[in-house]
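step 4 of 6: structure.
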Amino acid sequence: MRNKKRIIAAVLVASTFAFGLTGCGSSKTETADNNATQTEDDANTETTDEADADTGSDLTGSISLAGSTSMEKLCEAMSESFMNKYEGITVTAEYTGSGAGLESLAAGSIDIGNASRGLKDEEKAQGEVENVVAIDGIAVIADKDNKVVDITSDDLGKIYKGEITNWSDLGGEDQSIVVLGREAGSGTRDAFEELLEIKDQCNYAQELDSTGAVLAKVATTPGAIGYVSLDVVDDTVSEVKLNGVEPSEEKIKAGEYMLSRPFVMATKGEISEQNDLVKTWFDYIKSDEGKEVIKNVGLIIPD
Amino acid sequence: MNKVIEKTAKMIFLICAITGVLAVVSITVYMFIKGTPALKNVGIAELLFGNVWKPTANPPAYGIAYIILSSIIGTFMAVLIGIPVGLLTAVFLSELAGKKIATIVGGAVELLAAIPSVIYGLIGMMVLNPFLYKLELLVFKNKPEHQFTGGANLLAAIIVLAIMILPTVISISTSSLKLVPGNIKNASFALGATKIQTIFKVIIPAAKSGILTGVVLGIGRALGEAMAINMVAGGSVNVPLPFNSVRFLTTQLVSEMSYSSGVHRQVLFTVGLVLFIFIMIINFILLKMRRRDVMTNA
């Protein structure tokens, strides 16, 4: 009996202890984690340094970026691989939105302003230079048996707002349209809705949480329509032309396909006028390693 | 020497026992710490009773009422279908089936329990959704105001969940039915009752508490399922009607956690907290029932 009491007491003590630990420990563990990854990164850098000794790793300092939330994936991937190569340089990125990023750049509080759109004239007038580092392209897809191969961007917006609900309205068969899309917070959804100017007015029949799921559902649901990153479209679905233009890298680079947007890393003044750190950053983006990163996050490399 | 071994062994047992307690306590604390800020930032009423979910809009709307409602209705309907089927299967297994058939059915039920939920989801997606889409086209033939979902709807989730809770209900009910003493049964027969009369008037009432345990465990399973529902239910936030695409508490977390940030992310933790509290309530009921059971048996 006494033993039992003791065990119970021990459990109670332990649980209060746990309470205390979790109560104030969350930030502590994070720092510990960061340290761990940092040392890992350091180790990686050393090996790369040995591999190619001519990298300019004597540079030290930090580069600050701020802006578009849509560019988070690209920035994280790019800065991770960049910091692996240049151990002395720290890249910090904040995701405050394109407009806010360019404002901070104009105010001089950051080095690079990220924008997932072209710069406006008044922004250029402030001396900001548009450096397009990547292009985001979105393809509209329908199931294989769909007869509609060309949609105007107006009609596409109406489909997603729920104003057009039958393919017969677009010259197809009498078949209801099943409107598929991505979940809130997805970069693809963000870009799609923004470019069609239907942000948060969409009425989705299904919200799927991955590109693969959208592809699979469109392929298996008669009458379905969906959107995915350009680079993942395969032959299980049919690509829909937009305003008569087929989605392809060439058309996007020529500026003819409307469901695409530039990812801009704006600088105040030309790149050549920037400090060595920023120059190194842009050199890295344009290098083969940088291009690899851009491709890996599903974006198109500009000419 | 022996004393040392005894003591270390005891310590090891104690440490093992504490691990579980530690996990439960820290998970609870974590969920409350992470889940409560959004209640303050968004407002309890707006969050829990608002029915517009537009986390990325400007201004954003974080109402999860439809999501909570979908979870409750989906689970309730699944249980409503799953319980009678499960209970009757259990009666069949324990009272009516011959030894051979009982082995086959019992084995099948056990296999059903072992199938991972992603497989249920996959089959639901490939078989159930297309079938329900045909049904949807029939039911809403001349109603253009209905948004066609391609068969991914609440009904699909309910059917999948109902099948998924069967093994839990069946196995627990079967064992409690088997525990009903033979003399009660024989007394019923001696009074001239038929077999079916005996089952419904004597055996099932006698095994009531065990069957209820199965029901509650089934509810818990249905409420906590994420994978299968994510694959078949469509995932748009809508009023939980049979042919509407819906989102459950669990799928809400699964689908939006990866790209969320700021208040959106905080709200997702609150969704997790709501789910956690639901599960806690279910388990509390279960605990109460078991305790009562022990007392009445003693």
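step 5 of 6: annotate
 - The CA atoms of residues 71 and 222 of chain A lie 34 Å apart.
 - Chain A touches chain B at residues 7, 10-11, 14-15, 18-19, 21-23, 26, 69, 95, 162, 165-166, 176-180, 183-187, 190, 199-200, 203-209, 217, 220-224 (CB under 8 Å).
step 6 of 6: archive
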